[in-house]
Write a structure and sequence with these properties.
255 residues; alpha/beta; TIM Barrel; 12 strands
């Protein structure tokens, strides 16, 4: 059985870690290098770094900051935000990232997924999907948003996840915009819908507040990894505490 992964996330704005609720009301949560070192010491399975305003501001991810973080940690490290082309991917991998996360450009230029997977290996290419529930009289589905959650696309999240996987993505980073920062739990319906639609790993993101939420995402929704920010940043729970809870519940984790 593959072990389930616990992944802290550093949302970066203006060189600082920030966290909000439903992509709004951002609060400062510390220096990225120092926060990354804490999670390395807690033996997190991976770390995700998302420069959350890079695409909207049409600028590149902070490569120098990526280098500084990579020099201070020993766990796998995924970087996203402002990635526009193959050179951006190459620069981030050279700066120390093991994987890159592509969101806005993947939607606008899907061929980048295929080109990058062929050049660098699909294991390096994560497609991030920010999804918001859309309720209609007959059904519930989720719409994909880009530019840090600012721009609707009319893309159905499940359809887009299947297309991204077919194009060569090695992993899906799935964030529920409705649950983000609420600490009320992951969107299990969304996570289950995507996990059952693709054969590549799915990282559930948005809404973690208690250890039970991680368990539900893994056991009830089929997630391969769970990403969290608020409860780790503000030291409400440690990565170790979450893993110990999951192990007691019979979930395979690395301790």
């Amino acid at each position: 059985m593959l072990t389930k992964r616990i992944i802290p996330c550093l949302d970066i704005k203006e060189g600082r870690v920030v966290k909000g609720v439903k992509f709004l009301g951002l609060r400062d949560a510390g220096d990225p290098v120092e926060v990354a070192k804490i999670y390395d010491a807690q033996e997190a399975d991976e770390l995700v770094f998302l420069d959350i305003t890079a695409s909207f501001e049409k600028r590149k991810t902070l490569v120098e900051l990526v280098e500084r973080i990579a020099k201070n940690i020993f766990m796998p490290f995924t970087v996203g935000g402002g990635i526009a082309d193959m050179q951006d991917i190459r620069d981030l991998l050279n700066a120390g990232a093991e994987k890159v996360s592509i969101n806005t450009t993947a939607v606008k230029c899907p061929e980048l997924i295929t080109d990058a997977a062929r050049k660098f290996g699909s294991q390096c290419i994560v497609v991030a999907i920010d999804a918001k529930a859309v309720h209609s009289p007959s059904t519930k589905h989720w719409e994909v948003f880009i530019n840090g959650g600012r721009t609707p696309t009319e893309l159905d999240a499940v359809d887009w996840a299947k297309q991204a996987a077919a194009l060569g993505a090695g992993e899906i980073l799935l964030t529920s915009m409705d649950c983000d920062g609420t600490k009320d739990g992951y969107d299990l319906d969304l996570t289950r819908s995507i996990s059952s639609a693709v054969t590549i790993p799915v990282i559930a993101s948005g809404g973690a507040g208690r250890p039970e939420h991680f368990y539900d995402a893994f056991v009830k929704a089929g997630a391969d990894a769970c990403l969290a920010a608020s409860l780790f940043h503000y030291q409400e729970l440690s990565v170790r505490q979450v893993k110990e809870y999951l192990k007691e519940k019979g979930v395979s984790v690395r301790l």
